[in-house]
Amino acid sequence: MANESRPCPCDIGDKFDYGGRGQEVQVGHIKAYVCKPSASTDKAVIVIHDIFGWQLPNTRYIADMLTTNGYIAICPDFFVGQEAWKPSNDWATFNDWVKTRDAGKIDKEVDVVLKYLKDQCGAKKIGVIGFCWGGAAVQHLMLKNPHLKTGVSLYGVISRFEDKHSLLHPTFFIFAEKDDVIPLEQVTLLEQKLKQNCKVDYEVKIYPGQTHGFVHRKREDINPQDKPYIEEGRRDMINWLNKYL
Question: Where is the Dienelactone hydrolase domain (predicted)?
Fold first, then answer.
């Protein structure tokens, strides 16, 4: 099982020194980071952050990458003003901390963001991606929200969604082979359940030798052996969005 004393080993040591190309805006009752491509488009992607929150440069880097691929990208503060997890926090307090930030209770915020994307940005086709905590949120939305076209869940903690597998939309699941949080037997079980219950397209992919957070966390320049898998994960994510948006 996952190391209970440290239930989410997102390595903040891999934090990018990155400013971002987009801007912060107020969307209803929440703040959000928005980046738009130079050419007009009706395709948008909601980016759901991990436990380190909406201002993490790594997550904004991925949002900007989506924009360079032609998408409007928005990364809202799904903690709604509550403090993000900090590397200096005591991991013994993590379970209490995360109870007040439920990845399955973001529907109100998603509705506000969808309205903004449609009314202010002209978006008609909208997908969602999410990392870790946000990956679990993607799974929730793919089971529930009729207004999204597709989703990519990156190392989303699947123990929260053990009994729900009837996805509404095509969903791509990215997992790391050596993830301390998500044991491979959980991934295998997820695949079995999806095979039995899922009526839409899905894919579950495990990336060899990788650890939790590898797609948006690892610095390609300091992990040369991981670089091909980081790039492959990002490419797979973009290709999935391209296919279904």
Answer: 30-245
